[in-house]
C-alpha cells in the first residue's frame, strides 16, 4: 500500500523507537528484564484480543496484522494468525495462548467470569457475547495490579515513583471508563449494569476505595456519594472528583471544551512521567521513556496529518486542528 510522505515519516520514527525498545530489552537482566517485559505485556494483551476478536468475525490475517501494536510482538502471534475458524478458538487457548506470558491474565479473567474453570471453553462465548473494549478493560485492570505488585517488591525510589504513576493510571482507567460509558450511552451506565462497570476498576489508586470499590448495603466509606456506582452523568462525575485537584482540573477543561478529557489527563501523565528522569539508581525511567515516546509519536502523527490535510485544501477551507501534547 502506497504511503504519503507524512505517513512514511511517522512509520520511520515508530520503527526507530521499536528498535530502541528491543535493544534495551535484549540488554536487560534480572528484575529490569522482567520490568521491561511487563511494560510490553500491555500491548501484547491488546494484540491477542485484536486477533481473537477478528478471528471470531472471520477477518483475514493480513488485515489483522496492520492493527497490531509493534511493542506487543511475540513469536506466538504468528501462530495465532493461522487460526481462521471459530471452532479452532477452543484449541487456541490450549495450543498457543496458554504458553504466552500474558496467559495468566486471560486465565484470571476467565476464572472471574465462568464457573466451569476451563478457560478454553469460555473463550468462544466470551468473545462473541462481550464487548471487546470491556474485555480489554478487564485484562488491563489485572495487568495494572500485577505491575503494581511487582513494583512494590522492588522498593526504593523505583517503587516510590512507579506507585505514583500506576495510581494515576488506575484512576485514569476508571475515569475514562465512566466518562466514555456516559458519552456513548453504553449499557454499562444503566443502573442495573453499574456493578459490572465497577468490576472494571482497579483496587489501587487515589480513587480507591471511595470512588472505585464495589459498594453494597454493608459497605462503609468516608463518602459513598463519590462512588462511581452512583455516577450517570458528567456533572456527577465532576462533582465526585472535586476533592482530587488533578482530575477535577482535567474534567473542567473537558467541560469548558478547552480539550478532551483524554488529552487533559495526558498532560497530567506527562508531568508525572517526567519526574522519573530526576531520580537516581532506579528503573522507572524505562517505563517513562516508553510512554513519553508513544506520546511524542502521537504528536508527530497529528502534525503530519494536519500537514497532509493542509496540502489538499484551499485557503478558504477550515484549518486542520493539531493535537499536540508538549513533553519537554
From TrEMBL:
A GO cellular component annotation in the UniProt record: proton-transporting V-type ATPase, V0 domain
GO MF terms, alphabetically ordered: proton-transporting ATPase activity, rotational mechanism
Pfam family, one: vATP-synt_AC39
InterPro entries for the chain: ATPase_csu/dsu_sf, ATPase_V0-cplx_csu/dsu, ATPase_V0-cplx_dsu
Protein name: V-type proton ATPase subunit d
Top-level taxonomy: Eukaryota, Metazoa, Ecdysozoa, Arthropoda, Hexapoda
Amino acid at each position: 500500500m502506497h504511503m504519503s510522505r507524512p505517513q512514511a515519516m511517522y512509520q520511520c520514527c515508530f520503527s526507530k523507537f521499536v528498535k530502541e525498545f528491543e535493544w534495551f530489552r535484549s540488554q536487560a537482566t534480572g528484575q529490569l528484564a522482567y520490568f521491561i517485559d511487563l511494560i510490553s505485556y500491555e500491548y501484547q494483551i491488546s494484540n491477542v484480543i485484536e486477533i481473537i476478536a477478528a478471528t471470531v468475525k472471520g477477518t483475514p490475517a493480513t488485515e489483522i496484522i496492520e492493527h497490531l501494536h509493534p511493542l506487543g510482538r511475540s513469536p506466538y502471534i504468528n501462530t495465532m494468525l493461522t487460526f481462521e475458524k471459530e471452532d479452532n478458538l477452543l484449541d487456541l487457548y490450549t495450543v498457543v495462548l496458554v504458553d504466552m506470558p500474558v496467559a495468566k491474565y486471560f486465565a484470571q479473567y476467565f476464572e472471574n467470569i465462568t464457573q466451569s474453570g476451563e478457560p478454553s471453553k469460555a473463550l468462544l462465548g466470551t468473545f462473541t457475547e462481550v464487548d471487546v473494549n470491556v474485555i480489554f478493560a478487564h485484562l488491563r485492570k489485572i495487568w495494572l495490579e500485577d505491575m503494581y505488585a511487582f513494583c512494590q517488591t522492588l522498593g526504593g525510589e523505583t517503587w516510590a515513583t512507579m506507585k505514583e504513576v500506576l495510581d494515576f493510571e488506575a484512576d485514569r482507567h476508571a475515569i475514562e471508563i465512566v466518562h466514555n460509558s456516559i458519552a456513548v450511552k453504553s449499557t454499562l451506565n444503566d443502573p442495573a449494569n453499574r456493578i459490572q462497570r465497577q468490576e472494571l476498576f482497579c483496587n489501587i489508586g487515589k480513587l480507591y476505595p471511595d470512588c472505585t470499590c464495589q459498594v453494597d448495603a454493608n459497605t462503609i466509606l468516608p463518602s459513598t456519594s463519590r462512588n462511581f456506582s452512583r455516577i450517570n452523568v458528567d456533572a456527577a462525575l465532576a462533582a465526585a472528583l472535586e476533592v482530587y485537584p488533578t482530575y477535577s482540573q482535567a474534567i473542567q477543561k473537558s467541560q469548558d471544551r478547552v480539550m478532551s478529557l483524554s488529552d487533559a489527563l495526558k498532560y497530567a501523565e506527562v508531568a508525572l512521567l517526567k519526574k522519573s528522569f530526576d531520580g537516581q539508581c532506579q528503573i522507572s525511567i524505562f517505563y517513562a521513556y516508553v510512554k513519553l515516546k508513544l506520546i511524542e509519536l502521537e504528536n508527530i502523527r497529528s502534525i503530519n496529518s494536519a500537514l497532509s490535510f493542509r496540502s489538499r485544501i484551499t485557503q478558504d477551507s477550515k484549518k486542520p486542528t493539531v493535537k499536540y501534547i508538549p513533553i519537554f
